[in-house]
Amino acid sequence: MTTILVTGGTGTLGRLVTARLRADGHDVRVLSRHTEPYAVDLREGGAGLDAALAGVDTVVHCASSPRGGDERAAAHLIAAARKAAVSHLVYISIVGVDVVPLGYYRAKLAVEKQIEESGLGWTILRATQFHDLVAQVLGSLAKMPVLLLPAGVSDQPVEVAEVADRLAALSLGAPAGRVDDMGGPEVRGFRSLADAYLRATGRRRPLVDVRLAGKTYRAFRTGGHLAPDHAVGKGTFEEYLEARIGRTES
């Protein structure tokens, strides 16, 4: 039986990866800052991390924070994984980290490079944004009386459960390097996604497209964060909304 450590194992993605692997009968350890017996802050490292990795065959690295610290956390994890003779490190990244000059994306790209140069067997999967994040962003924007949208920007949201299935499968295979990106089933303009969100939540808001400035906005406008050639996801944004809110009728 394979022993697998899932970092960020209580998060949106990590908890689903953990559930998939346990359902298949694998010994899965969950590492997060507040979950015993492997309550570890990866940014600090320490003896707790060594204990969490003892006897582990594979690590699925889902822990991440837009607030910073990902590179330091990865350095601690890689050093401890080497010490523990871990055979496979699987990492979830984001489509466009090498194109979109957003600070969080740059940090994810830097972690990719750390893993590639780690000397460990590794697999990296890049996915487009989860439905959950798109809904969260639209929910924040909809708090205003007018819903302001980035003009000319599209997205390709993917169902997080499908990404969890893919990560779980990759963790049970041999190290595969950088695998094909995983995108949602549709490239959708933000206005289309906003319309779907407002219908599902029963809200009415005027939609106003706003042109922004800067390299990051240009990269999003040109689709640097999209994977139209890898639209392998099945679940649509409307199906996501129906499952969580129950109102997607026109």
From TrEMBL:
Signal peptide: none annotated. InterPro entries: Ergot_Alk_Oxidoreductase, NAD(P)-bd_dom, NAD(P)-bd_dom_sf. Pfam families: NAD_binding_10. Residues 8-132 form the NAD(P)-binding domain. PANTHER family: PRESTALK A DIFFERENTIATION PROTEIN A (PTHR43162:SF1), PTHR43162. This is NAD(P)H-binding protein. It comes from Streptomyces siamensis.
